[in-house]
Write a structure and sequence with these properties.
This protein starts with about 60 loop residues before the first strand and ends in a 6-residue tail after the last helix. The chain is globular, with a radius of gyration of 18 Å. The longest helix is centred in the middle third of the chain and has 21 residues. Helix 1 packs across helix 13 and helix 7 packs antiparallel against helix 8. An eight-stranded mixed β-sheet has the order 1-2-4-3-5-6-7-8, with helices on both faces. Helix 1 links the parallel strand 3 and strand 4. It is of the alpha/beta class.
């Protein structure tokens, strides 16, 4: 599925301070749909009620935490060393439902957060550049009262995990990335590899103002379902059941989510020739100095294996590459047992360079 392409437009893709938060479900002109509520001793801000399109019931606990000038929804389960899970597009925290239980059973404190502008987290008018989004992630680690975390990121969440490991290395204990190259590799592949540029056609299509947002929410989020289906591997029937896809479609239709979901991709493209983008690319030359696990589906049609495979050159620490045969862009959902097993074994391995 190709989102129509167009030239960039100067909407709210700019980097800079996050600005004031828009309460979930508002666009700035509306009254908040629920009160923010007081800050509780646990660090949450406002009610974190189960139910609705994003706070889905399960063995986990929902709550909100304040970080980097905004409020973030998290789902957490288990006790032990913190593992923070970062979702990608077009999904939200629920994509990690299988790993939440697996990690908790393995003795970890598993936390899946909604990124800025998505799920139950605040929609803000700006702040969707990767540097600021990475500060959201590290701010959540601090707000959870932990000295550090193992970051696990998929797709855009992986891009932010790479970024956080470079910007705040003391807060990242280990790094696991799925279906996303190092940011410098991503930039290079999108500009110089025609096959990757074509595979990432949706990213180019997101540069058109307003139309992509309308496409994502049209027909109750039908495009979200088509993108997931097209990006998944051929054997992902269980993952692609109608009920699971409907969850993602409903979450995308929460007001302002579609716009906020694609703003990071607008920044990633539009900033390529701007000073802020050039500075970010130079900043990402700093090597990652924590043990890194890089996971990828061999049949990923959105991010080619060749684009991701060279990311180890930016890691000056034990680096492990694992390719899941026959899986597509969502290995953690297409084969959650294999993915969770690989991740947990690596987290527990005292010699991750093997």
């Amino acid at each position: 599925m190709t989102v129509p392409e167009s030239s960039a437009s100067g909407t709210a893709d700019s980097a800079g301070p996050a600005g004031s938060a828009l309460p979930v479900g508002t666009t700035g002109d509306e009254r908040p749909t629920h009160p923010a509520g007081p800050v509780t001793p646990s660090g949450s801000t406002g009610p974190a009620v189960s139910g609705g399109p994003v706070r889905l019931d399960g063995p986990w606990t929902h709550r909100d935490v304040a970080a980097n000038g905004a409020r973030f929804h998290i789902a957490e389960l288990g006790d032990g060393p913190l593992v923070l899970l970062l979702h990608g597009f077009p999904q939200f925290w629920w994509t990690w439902r299988h790993q939440l239980t697996a990690l908790a059973d393995a003795g970890y404190r598993a936390v899946a957060m909604d990124l800025r502008g998505v799920g139950g987290s605040d929609r803000t008018p700006r702040g969707y550049d990767p540097a600021n989004l990475a500060l959201d992630v590290t701010g959540v680690i601090r707000s959870l009262g932990e000295p550090d975390a193992a970051l696990v990121g998929h797709d855009l969440g992986g891009y932010l995990a790479w970024t956080a490991a470079v910007m705040r290395p003391k807060l990242v204990r280990r790094l696991a990335v799925s279906s996303m190259p190092h940011p410098r590799r991503w930039r290079s592949a999108m500009l110089s590899d025609f096959a990757q540029s074509r595979a990432g056609s949706a990213v180019w299509g997101f540069q058109r103002p307003w139309l992509p947002e309308r496409q994502l929410v049209a027909d109750d989020g039908a495009l979200v379902g088509r993108l997931i289906q097209e990006w998944a591997g051929p054997g992902a029937d269980d993952f692609l059941d109608e009920e699971a896809v409907a969850v993602y479609r409903r979450a995308m239709c929460v007001p302002s989510t579609a716009h906020c979901s694609i703003e990071p991709y607008r920044w990633m493209v539009r900033s390529m020739g701007r000073p802020d983008g050039i500075q970010f690319n130079r900043r990402m030359k700093r090597p990652v100095r924590v043990p890194t696990l890089h996971l990828h589906g061999s049949l990923d049609p959105a991010v080619r294996t060749r684009s991701s495979a060279g990311s180890g050159e930016y890691v000056e620490a034990p680096y492990r590459w694992r390719l899941f045969d026959g899986l597509g862009h969502f290995p953690h959902e297409e084969d959650p047992v294999a993915f969770s097993t690989e991740l947990i074994n690596w987290l527990k391995d005292p010699e991750p360079d093997r």
